[in-house]
Prior knowledge:
Blueprint: E1 2-3, E2 7-12, E3 15-20, H1 31-46, E4 52-57, E5 61-63, H2 81-98, E6 103-107, E7 110-112, H3 114-121, E8 124-128, E9 132-134, H4 148-156, H5 158-167, E10 171-172, H6 173-178, E11 184-186, H7 191-203, H8 207-219, H9 225-240, H10 243-254
Parallel strand pairs: 3-4, 4-6, 5-7, 6-8, 7-9, 8-11
Antiparallel strand pairs: 1-2, 2-3, 9-10
Amino acid sequence: MTTSETVLAALDDGVLTLTLNRPDKLNAFTDDMHRILRAQMERARDDRAIRTVLLTGAGRAFCAGQDLGDRDPRKGARVDLGRTLDTSYNPLLRLIRSLEKPVICAVNGVAAGAGANVAFACDIVLAAKSARFIQAFSKIGLVPDAGGSWTLTRILGEPRAKALTMTAEPLAAQTAADWGLIWKAVDDDALMDEATALARKLAGGATLGLGMTKRLIQEAQDNDFDAHLDRERDLQRQAGESADYAEGVAAFLDKRPPNFRGA
């Protein structure tokens, strides 16, 4: 395991586990955390030994969003929150969405503001049943960011997206699962075992095809049906030429477990 003051990183069985590590501050984001987390996501993008990413938080929270102590207008200088998004959150979110490997998020406690929306940007989200998702922006006069207004509207529709962001009412993990905002809510003491098992399962899978699947599903929101049929055709052609496909078919016919290489 490699450690910093703000993020822990451990690679095992093809799974890169990244743990936000400011438990005394509910893992609220700082510039340092962004720098390290972004570097680790770039590492996951570039290192073929990393086949799945698992993101979680230390202590009793996943992430409380931005550390407001670093963005306090009383300190005199004008606070440019647009620059914070441009230099920190938006590059991280684009990395998560564009990474052609599964990104799993295990939400172990409260996920508020940008912390909730970073979780929602991941491919598969599991949450402890005690976890809560809070769009806290309206409480301090801000608009949803870190992709929240985009994600919530597309998944939940306007009525629920507006209510969640305007009232800042906490959303229970089980309700988030029932509404389709996350994959599932699990017992608190089972969260990391289940998330790690899922991450290892995906890491042992045909990750080339999984990355293409991720791309297709994300593109489906903007494509019309005819265009998307063509897109499926193009990526299926690529997948059909891969070593993973050859191995998958051979393993199926030989009645043995496949040994996928992600190529």
